[in-house]
Amino acid sequence: MNYEIRYSKLNERQKQAVNTIEGPVMVVAGPGTGKTELLSMRAANILRRTDMLPENILCLTFTESGSIAMQKRLVDIIGREAYGISVFTFHAFGSEIISRYREYFYNGADFNPADELTRHKIITDILQELPPKNPLKTMMNGEFTSVGMIISAISDIKRAGLEPKELTAILDANDEVIDIAEPLLIEAFSARVNKNTFDKLASVSESLAKINEPQPIPTISRLSDILRASLKRSLEEASEHPKITPPLTKWRTDWMTKSEAKKPIMAARKQQMKLRALVDIYEKYLENMQSAKLYDFDDMISQVVHAIEQNPSLQAELQEKYQYIMVDEFQDTNHAQMRILHALTNNPANEGNPNLMVVGDDDQAIYSFQGADIGNILDFQKHYKNAKLITLIDNYRSAECILTAAREVITQGSERLENRIDELDKNLSPHALPEKPNAEIVTLPSEGSEREWIARDIKDKLKNGQNPGDIAILARRHADLVSLLPYLAKAQIPVSYDQNDNVLDNDFVSQILYLSNIVDALANNDLGHANELLPQMMAHPAWNFNPEILWQISLKAYKNRLQWLEVLQSTPETKPFANWLINCARASKVLPMERMLDLLSGIEIFDENYTSPLKLYFLAENNTERISHLQNLIALRTKLREHQPDLRKARLSDLLEFVKICQQTNTTITIRRHIGQDSQSVKLMSAHASKGLEFDTVYLIGATDTNWGSKASRGGNKIAYPENLRLRNNNDSPEERLRLFFVGMTRAKRQLIISRALQSESGKELMLANFLAGELSLKATNLGDDFQENHKNEIIEIEWYAPIIGLPQATMRDLLDEDLARYKLSATHVNAFIDITRGGPQSFLLNNILHFPSARSPYASYGTAIHTALQFAHDSLLADGKTPLPEQIIDKFKSKLENEPLTAEELNHFTQKGIDALNIFLQNKLHSFTRDQRAELNFSNQQATFKNVRLTGKIDVASIDEKNKTIAVTDYKTGSPLHAWNKGADYDRIKAHKYRQQLLFYKLLAENSRDWKNYKFIDGILQFVEPDKAGDIIDIRLQEVSEEELTNFTTLLEAIWHHIQNLNFPDTSNYSKDYAGVLEFEDDLKRGKFKNSIDTAV
């Protein structure tokens, strides 16, 4: 289609923008107003009306797809000449400059990209050298907690194009303002906010106008200007508010805070202190990167900024080349990108009127988490005084009811151009006239019913002939989409969804890593570690081992105190596999890592007697996940090469070290996986990903205040910035969530359906998003109790041990008959059986009946060492008649801990943790130790029996009064202290519930034992060794036990005993994994719900 025909189809405002080719222009283009056509037509018009060549035009976009779309349109309009026009994303433009003008970058040397782990190590090394009082040198469990925050902040600063000296100059200028403004504001707010405060703040505003603050960087606003403008708006709001004070109180909350000494200070002063510490780290980081000849992703723009600004010859050449510049999605530019635009357009010959057009929409600024600053579009006319403003208001996408509702939502925001420019009117005019338009909000009783209703509603639409490809479901978070997938699957609705997967979670990769760990452990003669890992790996169906064989191996190893590998070698069915493992261990000493990966995955064969089944299992042609598995393996190897470019010297241990560092630093190796067919599938995507797209029908889900509104959780652990350094502090603010919701709403052409639930899955009440709570034109549909959820669709996680515990009951009986005949129930076993949050009966079977080996956790080692030390104190007192010194008890703790399987870091951490805890505990409690107390009282040979239930256990401390025939039990706990039996978070309630049942069990154990059955059990005490946050040592007493509580507990014991003896281990996947779920499961056990499920339970 030629230019004239396309031009004739433009509306008047679009034509105005196309025809305005000289000077600065800002086009405010709302959703669906045809801005992409406008940009292409304007480029064509420049070539038509001037003697410019195509290469004199520079078009900058934000996405590769946007760049390709613009290039394609240009070719359609002007033919092959369009390929001469420079159409780049900002990063591609940076890459082009660096490639073409190498002499201005890195002194012409070759630099390599630094991966995330390398950057993490550089920051860690810098922190190691900092003094302890540095505010960014924070640690927990022996690890620096601020590394990720610092890396993120450095990225923010680079996206602003700031060098350390520039950031320092801005901070210095800010401090000048703070030193003047802070005492004035402290005085103004010295009393309770009232009408007098208004007059004082008006006076402060006048004083701020007199501050002559320098402006080191033109694109970074003065703090005094922002402070004064903010205060002015607050005063205007207060003058119009019936009570005057609320806007002033809010302003104080935003701008003032308290120092560590609890004195009022400006929030900016606190922020500046941390930023100054960051500057030092930033400077060292750049030096280390330079010396290692490394660069990171953000260098692409920041290096270009400074190269252009600091090299007049380069700047002049680029200014001569790019005479006309256009920027799409201008609201998404960051400070560094803005500085590039200034550097390219500040040619004196332009006299402040460069040929620069920016197109954007402040209401669609949703990328602050990438460093975007809405201030760039808000302040464009401030930077370019003569800029022409053109507003596109003709919407060709959405029905009028949708645009009306979207307008009602977005106008609640304060950071908008309409609030800055009086003559600006962004009210969109609808031109689309679809049949049966609809904009409504649907309220459902619960989150589960919300998901099921969405699936049903879409199913009905598909039955009525709607194309699934015309429907989109948008959410703020991917987790909400994942939760919806099972409901859509059950309704047989085809979906299209891009999912980010962690390579390390891929089943194929996981098996290779398990195998690598086992082989490496064997190569280093660490049989214990191999022993811990073998059961979980061999249970995977890829290895095709009969579960009965695994049971036999486990029981034989347990009874004969053998390692699994020893039993595997002596078992005919597993001997070839065991020998293959040993051969792999030998090979790992000499073969490079990549060869070993081929051997372990079965891609290469080196043992005629046994070959890894992983290739055959995961990469078989009939495996629907075959491509995904291959992509994950390739992604892992690619990431390894980035981290360690020379893999010739790498060994299997290097792979394991790499994975370990990834896990320690929470670094994910991400691969994007696409599910479904686009054209014939319902699209599921985040609201961010929907930007620039349109659909006939849009479901915008989860419209609650805790999800979208004012109470939504915000990402923590970020460095805050002063108001004139809006680098990332706006990320996920209420204003940005409002804009994101607006973007989601305006993707809809004919139908917009907003859904929300009244109650969360945990039963918590959910409020409607605050910006939807007013009187809106949206049709309201409240299904309430009228909607019945038919099914609870859950994504059931299949545990690794599922194939093992799924043996027929008769086979289980044959293997375990002798063990069950000798079995005794302990308090630990009771709690393991009922705790469905940790696997419940299935986990109990594996760990407590089959005795599958598992690694001992560091916390378990720590608890053992504490108990050993306290037992030593009690035993010494009983034997010698005197209590050992605290130092002796602590030495005993340290000695025991040193013999536990801990890493050096873990040993250091838990040693100090234990010393700190024992010092306080012994100071408070050592005097109460008596010779009547017996530590670690063992009941294994006491023949304790209650209603045919055989009981056993070991009590930490039994206080025995021989004269009065009483016994009291103390149980030491090393976790966080509890203050009550039935209070606190869900995790604490489960813990307290199990602790109380443990004491009840000890009561039964003592009262039904051979030696203590005639003693009266007078109390059970939970004694916490570690102090609470106030530094107090806490204990909780069982005290009175009602007959009802005791009866309920004994009924539970009998039920558990019955289940164990009958090898009936119920499936608990349908219970909620929380305190309520534990109680519900216990109730079902007591009333015999599973007695008839013996044939199917296992």
Helix content: 40-55%
Shape: globular
- What is the CATH level 1 assignment of the largest domain? Alpha Beta
CATH level 3 topology of the largest domain: Rossmann fold
Number of helices: 41
| Main sheet properties | 8 strands, mixed
Strand percent estimate? 5-15%
Radius of gyration, taken over Cα atoms and rounded to an integer in Å? 35 Å
Mean pLDDT: 87
So, CATH architecture of the largest domain?
3-Layer(aba) Sandwich
Main sheet: which strands, in order across?
Answer: 18-17-19-16-20-21-15-22
Q: Any low-confidence stretches, pLDDT <50, length ≥5?
A: 791-798, 1094-1098
For the record, the count of structural domains works out to 6
Cα-to-Cα separation, first versus last residue: 69 Å
Structural class: alpha/beta
Number of strands: 29
CATH homologous superfamily assignment of the largest domain? P-loop containing nucleotide triphosphate hydrolases
Keywords:
Rossmann fold, 8-stranded mixed β-sheet, alpha/beta, 6-stranded parallel β-sheet, 29 strands, 41 helices, disordered C terminus, 1098 residues, 12% strand
In short:
The protein has 1098 residues and is α/β, with parallel strands linked by helices. It folds into six domains: 3-111 and 297-392, Rossmann fold, CATH 3.40.50.300; 115-292; 438-494 and 676-786, P-loop containing nucleotide triphosphate hydrolases (Rossmann fold), CATH 3.40.50; 504-673, PCRA, domain 4; 804-839 and 932-1098, no CATH class; 856-930, no CATH class. A hairpin with a 5-residue loop joins strand 7 and strand 8 (264-266).
